[in-house]
Design goal:
alpha+beta, 4 helices, 39% helix
């Protein structure tokens, strides 16, 4: 089988271009690997707070309720604005100790869930009959928490 010199040259040019592209890509990967990486393995992104003193986490906005909803005991609810009623739940609990769970805060968005403390993680594994050593299991739990939108300080 014979091919023309022009066809041979085109094939060689295409191969050289592919090789150059691979070299450039390889250099980019090497540069990325040379950068100090966070211990969590997550890239920098909005909402990710990288720390050096422990697992990284999603930034958690601080949120206050906008109102209180109180069960009336007959299947309905009474509502109060949060403004000027910040201590309503505590006051209700003091006046009605048998009905503490009847007052609940209402938010414009669901409240952010807090991650487990290291002690709570250890207790969960202990209750499951699993002995953990080192930080690997705790880091795994932190990754699962982050994947489910749970962030902030434990």
């Amino acid at each position: 089988m014979s091919i023309s010199i022009e066809a041979h040259d085109r094939i060689c040019q295409d191969l050289h271009q592919q090789i150059r592209s691979l070299i450039v890509e390889n250099e980019k990967l090497r540069a990325a690997l040379a950068e100090p990486a966070c211990c969590c393995g997550e890239p920098s992104a909005p909402g990710i707070v990288h720390r050096t003193d422990g697992p990284c986490h999603m930034a958690e906005p601080v949120q206050e309720p906008v109102a209180w909803r109180t069960f009336d005991g007959e299947g309905g609810y009474d509502h109060r604005t949060y403004e000027d009623n910040e201590d309503y739940a505590a006051e209700w609990a003091k006046r009605n100790p048998r009905h503490v769970g009847w007052v609940e805060p209402l938010y414009t968005a669901p409240p952010q869930r807090k991650p487990l403390t290291d002690e709570e993680i250890q207790q969960c594994f202990k209750e499951a009959g699993i002995t953990i050593k080192g930080q690997h299991w705790t880091n795994a739990v932190r990754n699962v928490e982050r994947a489910h939108g749970i962030g902030g300080q434990p």
